[in-house]
Specification:
Helix content is about 85%, strand content about 0%. By secondary structure, the chain is an all-alpha fold.
């Protein structure tokens, strides 16, 4: 029983750290897309503003340790950029 509990705990900790490493990669993809003038030119001002807001909020959530929220926000930003 203890062995199963330790395995479950290790899996939980590993999955949380995996999410933590996903956030910077997502931020990098968004930042790279925002540097693409052709892609940015296709976006209206409201969408571009939303992407910047989602990107900032995603980074704040990452820094605060809320990686699930960070990934959700960053994935939404990627979707609005047309990356998904």
């Amino acid at each position: 029983m203890i062995k199963k509990s330790l395995i479950a705990l290790a899996a939980l900790l590993f999955s949380a750290s995996a999410w933590a490493y996903t956030c910077p990669a997502l931020m990098g993809e968004i930042d790279e897309a925002l540097q693409d003038e052709a892609r940015v030119a296709e976006l209206d001002e409201a969408t571009l503003e939303a992407v910047h807001d989602l990107r900032a909020r995603g980074e704040e959530a990452h820094v605060a340790g809320d990686h699930d929220e960070s990934v959700a926000l960053l994935e939404e930003a990627k979707e609005r950029l047309g990356l998904i």
